[in-house]
Amino acid sequence: DPISHEWSDGVLAVSYRAFATSTTPDRKWLIFDGPVDAIWIENMNTVLDDNKKLCLMSGEIIQLANTTNLMFEPMDLEVASPATVSRCGMIYMEPHMLGWQPIMKSWLNTLPATMTQEHKDLIAELFTRMVPCSLDFVRKAGFKELSPTTDTNLVHSLMNIHESMLMEFQDEQA
Questions:
Q1: Cβ partners under 8 Å of residue 131, min gap 6
Q2: 132 with 126: CB under 8 angstroms?
Q3: What phi and psi, each to the nearest 5 degrees, are found at residue 55?
Q4: How many other β-carbons are positioned within 10 Å of the β-carbon of residue 81?
Q5: Distance between alpha carbon 62 and the CA centroid of its chain, in Å?
Q6: Cα separation of 117 and 115, whole Å?
Q7: pLDDT in tens, 100-155
Q8: Any residues with CB less than 8 A from the CB of 61 and at least 6 apart, and which?
Q9: Cβ-proximal residues to 9 (8 Å cutoff; 6+ apart), any chain
Q10: What spatial distance separates the first Cα and last Cα of the chain, rounded to whole Å?
Q11: Cβ-Cβ contacts under 8 Å for 75 (sequence gap 6 or more)
Q12: What predicted TM-score, i.e. pTM, was given to this entire model?
């Protein structure tokens, strides 16, 4: 509060403190998904060091437990300094390298509970059989797209259409 100068913790400090005081042996993950802010990420350098200490503006220092990991999923590291980047293990994936199959598998897990595993296996088999040749047809037949798409976008649209046809299988009790 700028008037009373009273400090209140944000989401990171609250989550970090909860994970630091946790006594369970289970692995815990703090996942940061979004743009990297230059000032914020520089303040995270002590967390990214081997000692894993979060130094808050209030003067409090929180030591993170060994069972907790941090994961950053930024679009880019344009504003991150070399010091920050060197503290992190990097995995870069081009979207087209991932392909459409993991998205389909994830989507199958969101289908209504009334869909049995047998149904899901059949849908997966049909997608696996038909999508590659359909994508080849769209890409190699010389079609002009009004708005450029990726294979993942097209398959996601197919899943949306398919899901709209599955509405009658929704359990109204759930």
A1: 100, 104, 155, 158
A2: no
A3: -100, 110
A4: 13
A5: 26
A6: 7
A7: 999 999 999 988 888 899 999 999 999 999 999 999 998 898 888 888 888 999 99
A8: 53, 54, 55
A9: 17, 56, 58
A10: 43
A11: 35
A12: 0.53
